[in-house]
Amino acid sequence: MQNAKDSFYMALRTRLAAINPERTILLRGASRPGILAEEAEAPFNQLPNDVFVLRWLGLGVDMDLGSTMAAEQCEILYQTSGTQSFGGLDRGRLLSEMDEELVAIMQPFYTAKLNYTATPPASMLTKVFWDEPGFAPVVVKRDLLSRSASVMVYSYQEQGE
Amino acid sequence: MAMTWFSAPAPVARRVRAYFAPVNRTAQTPVLFDPAEQGGFSLDAPPAPWLSLGWIQGFTRKPISKTAPVLSGIPASPLEQVRETLEAQVSLEFLSWTKLTMALATGSQHMNLLAAASGAAASADGATAAAAVTTLSGSTATFVALAAADAAKFSAGSIIALDADYTGQTGFVGTPVSGAYVRQALTDVNYIRRVTFNVALVSQASSTGLTLAEPLPGGAPAAGSKLQAVTGFVDREGGSFYQEWSALFVMEGSQGERILFYYPRLQTMAGAQEAALPLDGKNKGGLARVLLKGQFLALPVTDALDGERVVCYRSFLPAAHALV
């Protein structure tokens, strides 16, 4: 299941870098595409602005199949308070931009499954696939607009996983 | 040692994509689809002459062939069974309204509403049309060369119908799809352009001609063909003409596997119907998407392989590395 989570994250990260290379985050001294897996970083006091944060929640498995299918629920959180140059008045526009980017990086709704513990990452036999995201209403907290989207990510367990 | 195969569960598919191709009505020849050679085609670029109808929903196959047992003995018990009738139906809903989807979802001719001549008397399927203009040499499937005065009659956003003049012939008419069957000679010189499927949207108009948003289904215009502006489309409940198409439906599974349903001959078997799909499931009285409903009867062909009569071919292309 970790391979599916890694593959999903890396697919979204690669697509985001292609769609909007300017959305980056400086993390541990390195500039990276502006998307991260919360469980793979040091705990945050507050989620970073203008970045997509993946949080893994529910898990279900169907073992009555030729290959066990795992369904992992991923919540993608993002928020913005706009830019200083516009005094934050562009926060609605920036949140819309992130909505559009998220819709774009979700497609196509599948990616190859790779084992990222190997160097270089090793291709596996199956694909990871997911459904359309469900968007939650915007939450307004002073000057901060935030939203989350939930997507169910499916994968088949391969032998040796 | 790393595994090189996996046991694939039943395919998980998001939706169904539909492709249609015109049956040659004069020669009664359906369009062939070879899943071995063509099954892996890009869903966005089907092999010619297949036309993409986009995603569909509510795709339902209904085999209604009847079998009967051959009884023997006392008391009678089944000795074997025979196929008494061969019949199948397909129903679906198109997610867009286009010339082609509308035509497929109607039981009769599908006509273009040609822009009317000034002061023409009203008619339920379009008044007498404004005069057609003649295409010039140098035209292609995406560019129609015209004289400057003729090109000035069109602008970006115009819809055009391009085909030959009607000259009194009978039989199937229209290029590249037979749009109607003329039983007795008519008087409307624009009749073929009324029923032709060779329509397109103009994306740009210049003094030399019209650039089209999509290629003409019939390819580069034939010499002497003419075009007219189209304001919309009309079909009728009734009539005696049945559209006939070859159809291909593709389900792509999550692991790259494909299920393909190839119907060599499909005829519309119901009149025009629509289905309303509420945009907000909690507000069924609010905005609704109007979907075209299609219901088709599958007609048989004789398979040259062994002489069997069949109505549909279902192919399965397994995912890479999946056990078979």
Give a structural overview.
- The complex is a heterodimer of chains A (161) and B (324).
- Chain A is α+β, with helices and mostly antiparallel strands.
- Chain A has one domain (2-156): STM4215-like (2-Layer Sandwich), CATH 3.30.2000.
- Chain A has helices spanning 2-19, 91-105, and strands at residues 24-27, 30-33, 35-37, 52-62, 69-80, 110-115, 122-130, 134-135, 139-141, 144-156.
- In chain A, a hairpin with a 2-residue loop joins β1 and β2.
- The mean pLDDT of chain A is 95.
- Chain B is mainly β and 324 residues long.
- Chain B has helices spanning 35-38, 99-104, 148-151, 191-195, and strands at 13-22, 51-63, 66-72, 77-85, 88-94, 110-114, 133-134, 143-145, 159-163, 171-173, 180-182, 199-206, 209-212, 226-235, 244-253, 258-268, 273-278, 288-299, 301-302, 309-310, 313-317.
- In chain B, strands 6, 7, 8, 9, 12, 13 and 14 form a seven-stranded antiparallel β-sheet that branches. Chain B has a six-stranded antiparallel beta barrel with strand order 1-2-5-18-16-15.
- The model of chain B has no long low-confidence stretch (mean pLDDT 93).
- The A-B interface holds A 65-67, 69, 109-110, 122, 125-127, 129, 154, 156, 158-160 and B 2-10, 12, 14, 254-256, 319-321, 323.
How many strand segments of chain A? Answer: 10
Mean pLDDT of chain A: 95
CATH class of chain A: Alpha Beta
Percentage of residues in helical conformation of chain A: 10-25%
Q: Which consecutive residue ranges of chain B, at least 5 long each, have pLDDT under 50?
A: none
Strand content of chain B: 35-45%
Largest interface: A-B, 16 and 18 residues
Largest beta sheet of chain B, briefly? 7 strands, antiparallel
N/C terminus separation of chain A: 8 Å
**What is the residue-mean pLDDT of chain B, rounded to a whole number?**
93
How far apart the termini of chain B lie comes to: 21 Å
User: H/E order of the elements of chain B?
Assistant: EHEEEEHEEEHEEEHEEEEEEEEEE
* Number of H/I helices of chain B: 4
Q: What's the quaternary structure here?
A: heterodimer
Would you count the extended β strands of chain B for me?
Answer: 21
